[in-house]
Write a structure and sequence with these properties.
The complex is a heterodimer of chains A (116) and B (111).
Chain A (H helix, E strand, L loop, with lengths): L2 E5 L2 E3 L5 E8 L8 E6 L6 E6 L6 E3 L7 E6 L4 E6 L8 E9 L2 E4 L3 E5 L2
Parallel strand pairs in A: 2-11
Antiparallel strand pairs in A: 1-3, 3-8, 4-5, 4-9, 5-6, 7-8, 9-10, 9-11
Chain B lengths: L3 E3 L2 E4 L5 E7 L8 E6 L6 E6 L5 E3 L7 E6 L2 E6 L8 E9 L2 E4 L3 E5 L1
Classes of the chains: A mainly beta (116), B mainly beta (111).
């Protein structure tokens, strides 16, 4: 069974850092690009970042460039999102997701709250 | 710039049918899209891929009541025999060069 499970969310003060993890199972993790998508309270879905299957290419939405870093460890079947210099507007549920041969798979999400 | 436009809200009666629209921006009329459903207080759920010719492939367990079609730059999600659990937000999504773009979503109310 294909599964994505996020962890690492929590409450953090503005300017601080947090790292999210996404554990993958049920598919060949090292063969697929992986995405982070977020959803601020009461709003729609916003794509955040993507990393290629082998980690060689990474792309980000403009609002997180220079602050967030997407990475992966294919030996551990795990995706990461390192979030630095967090702002109040980064408060959201963060989902990891992937497209496996035409079927989009979502994790359950991890809530990140940036507040003093 | 690639933009997906969705109406903010839609409503239809229990047992009726509804057609939700996702419009691709100019110059992108041949793009395929994906439809996702997000029920209240839940994560998104993949519904289907939808191509420019109207062919579509649904996710596992998606009822036959859900279908898709296309016309020009518009992509449609058709839900027939509406049930109460269909009340949800529906998002369309596409991509260009690995970067994903989401529509702003349509909130469907089942009356």
């Amino acid at each position: 069974q294909v599964q994505l499970v996020e962890s690492g969310g929590g409450v953090v003060q503005p300017g601080r850092s947090l790292r999210l993890s996404c554990a993958a199972s049920g598919f060949t993790f090292s063969s697929y690009a992986m995405h982070w998508v977020r959803q601020a309270p009461g709003t729609g879905l916003e794509w955040v970042a993507v990393i290629w299957y082998d980690g060689t290419n990474k792309y980000y939405v403009d609002s997180v460039k220079g602050r967030f870093t997407i990475s992966r460890d294919n030996s551990k079947n795990t995706l990461y999102l390192q979030m630095n210099s967090l702002r109040a507007e980064d408060t959201a549920v963060y989902f990891c997701a992937t497209d496996i041969s035409g079927t989009y798979v979502w994790g359950q999400g991890a809530l990140v709250t940036v507040s003093s | 710039q690639l933009v997906l436009t969705q109406s903010p809200s839609a409503s239809a009666s229990l047992g009726a049918s509804v057609k939700l629209t996702c419009a691709l921006s100019s110059g992108h009329s041949t793009y395929a899209i994906v439809w996702h459903q997000q029920q209240p207080d839940k994560g998104p759920r993949f519904l289907m891929n939808l191509n420019s010719d109207g062919s579509h492939s649904k996710g596992d367990g998606i009822p036959d009541r859900f279908s898709g079609s296309s016309s020009g730059a518009e992509r449609y999600l058709i839900i027939s025999s509406l049930q109460s659990e269909d009340e949800a937000d529906y998002y369309c999504q596409t991509w260009v060069n690995d970067i994903q773009v989401f529509g702003e979503g349509t909130k469907l109310t089942v009356l």
